[in-house]
Amino acid sequence: MLTQLGIFLRKLRLDHGEIMKEMAKKLDVSSSFLSAVENGKKKMPDSWYEIIVNLYSLDQEQQDKLKKSIEESQKSIEINLNDLNSKKRNLVFSFARELDNLNEEEVDKMNLFLKKDGE
């Protein structure tokens, strides 16, 4: 099943008249790896964002759509806690533990507090 990122990449390819093999070559990966990224079986390498922006000369709107599709397609995130003091670390862990317990209203309030679009 295609992820939001997969949909974005496929549309980008088609808009540029490319097949998967051509995009994979530009990204220096195999077609099967690119397919696995599109289908959510593999994580997109972090380096791809800048590469895709530059290869396809994405405007700001397209860059925003790419970022959002990456976020929506992620199954997990990694947070580096090395530079956080114990208070901030505890906040991160508390948030992660309680995330499943938040209702939609609480999520909306958190997004408003963090000034980030929820959906």
Protein model, in words:
By secondary structure, the protein is mainly alpha-helical. The protein folds into 2 domains: 4-73, Orthogonal Bundle (434 Repressor (Amino-terminal Domain)); 79-119, no CATH class. Helix content is 61%, strand content 0%. α1 packs antiparallel against α5 (60-73) and α2 packs across α3 (31-38). The longest helix has 14 residues, at 60-73. The radius of gyration is 17 Å and the shape is elongated. The two termini are 21 Å apart. Residues 9-46 form the HTH cro/C1-type domain. It comes from Anaerococcus porci.
Mean pLDDT across the residues is 90
Number of contiguous helices = 7
Number of strands: 0
Q: Helicity level, as a percent range?
A: 55-70%
Order of helices and strands: HHHHHHH
Query: What is the CATH T-level topology of the largest domain?
Result: 434 Repressor (Amino-terminal Domain)
Largest sheet: none
User: How many structural domains in the coordinates?
Assistant: 2
Q: What can be said about this structure in brief?
A:
One of its GO terms (molecular function) is DNA binding. 61% of the residues lie in helices and 0% in strands.
Walk me through the topology.
Blueprint: H1 4-15, H2 20-26, H3 31-38, H4 48-55, H5 60-73, H6 86-98, H7 104-114
Keywords:
mainly alpha, 119 residues, 0% strand, 434 Repressor (Amino-terminal Domain), 7 helices, 61% helix, Cro/C1-type_HTH
